[in-house]
Amino acid sequence: MRNLFRGYYKPTPAEFTQIWKHCIFSFDTNVLLHIYSYTPATRERFFEILNGFSDRIWIPHQVAYEYQKNRPHVIYAQQKAYGDIEGILNQGFYALRNDLLKSYRRHPFIDTQQILADVEKAMEEIKSKIQFAQLHHPNYMDYDELREILSDLFDGKVGQPYSDEELEIIYQKAEKRFTYKQPPGYKDAKKTIPRSYGDVVLWFQLIDYAKSQQKPVLFVTDDNKEDWWLKVAGETFAPRPDLIQEILSEVGREDFQFYMYHSDEFIEQAEKFLNLPVRPEAIQEAREIMLQESVIQRADVKSTYLRTVGYDVLSQILEIEFRTGEVFQYLNVPPTVYTDLMNAPSLGQYFNENIRDVYSSRKL
Question: What's residue 314's pLDDT?
């Protein structure tokens, strides 16, 4: 039975050893973009690993395209974080001051004014550190050292694009796959066309490359959705068996192997294989960033109508918490619309005119 359902069986330790010795390592867009969120130490470790496998790394054309397209928006979000955090601190201090002065202005043993003075002093020190960090944050819009490193690493190791005719055929196949919830990509079915087909295009390019190389493939992705991973009761257990079964069937060789990792597990296993000094903090950081991307982080905004706003570049979901306490997600919102919203003189007015009845939404 194992031979008929190889995709449902995890490789044995001996098989994993052979996979790591001979495989091609391929990476998803989110893995490359998460490099911008890593601390320098974790980033250094990741590049060290890529260099260790430099003759065995490859990415589909779709991954390279999505990286180039989404990179500026990730950089913008990193730069914007400094102002967001300072705004959160200011709002927290104002709320604390109002609560203390309202309820505890006169207390026989508590000096609220001194408390506020101490907190304000600490806040100013924190703000100075934030401003110092912002001052020394690399201007990747002007010169992107990280992209230069990736460009050198993947020079000659990016797949070719499909022709327009080939894409049309794949789009038709993608629609059929969505109907039957055949992975991957059906979780993106509500995105605008052709963005909704991105994962399917990537998957077909990965299969085509595996066919041409006839070597094992390890695919590293920080996508955590159920159309890539087997989930039971909300917990991720393994790559989708039907995904593995499909690529094994397409390649056709009995000894062909395919497996998937998240970035944290990839770093952990790569350290062992390359005999690198273990850096558990890098593994933990990669795991936290991967999980953080599964939840849209919202920041406080200055608006009488909106309370917090968050945005995910890859899914293009805009999440808004209103002053009423209700939270809505708006789907397929381009990054430019999010940027214009955050820079608008009146966030509420911009929302009503450009988002409310323009993009489909769901209440959380």
Answer: 65
Residue 280 preceded by cis peptide, ω within 30: no
Classify residue 111 as exposed, middle or buried by CB count within 10 Å of its CB (0-12, 13-18, 19+): exposed
Residue recorded with tokens 């190791």: 157
The pair of three-digit structure tokens given for residue 281, joined into one six-digit string: 């903090």
- Other C-beta atoms lying within 10 Å of the C-beta of residue 271: 20
Spell out the residues 6+ positions from residue 122 whose beta carbon is closer than 8 angstroms to its own.
Answer: none
Integer CA distances (angstroms), 85 to 107, 117, 121, 136, 347, in order: 32, 20, 17, 16, 19
Residue 178 CA from chain centroid, whole number: 22
pTM: 0.80
Q: Judge contact between 280 and 288, C-beta under 8 A.
A: no
**Cβ partners under 8 Å of residue 281, min gap 6:** 41, 42
What is the residue type of 25? Answer: F
pLDDT digits (tens, 9 = 90+) for 200-235: 999 999 999 999 999 999 999 999 888 999 988 777
Q: Helix axis angle, 61-104 relative to 198-213, nearest 10°?
A: 140
Under 8 Å between Cβ of 227 and 186: yes
Closest CA to 65 of 203, 227, 202, 260: 202
Q: Give phi and psi for 192, each to the nearest 5.
A: -70, 150
- Taking alpha carbons only, the member of 16, 29, 25, 35 closest to residue 140 is 35
Phi, psi of 336 (to 5 degrees): -65, -35
How far is C-alpha 81 from the chain's CA centre? 16
Mode of pairing for the β-strands spanning 57-58 and 24-27:
parallel
The 8-class DSSP code of residue 236 comes to: E
The torsion defined by the Cα of 40, 46, 52 and 53, in degrees rounded to 10, comes to -150
Render pLDDT for 98-153 as a digit per residue (tens, 0 to 9): 888 888 878 888 888 898 899 999 999 999 999 999 999 999 999 999 999 999 99
**Under 8 Å between Cβ of 320 and 337:** no
Token code pair at residue 37? 């969120």
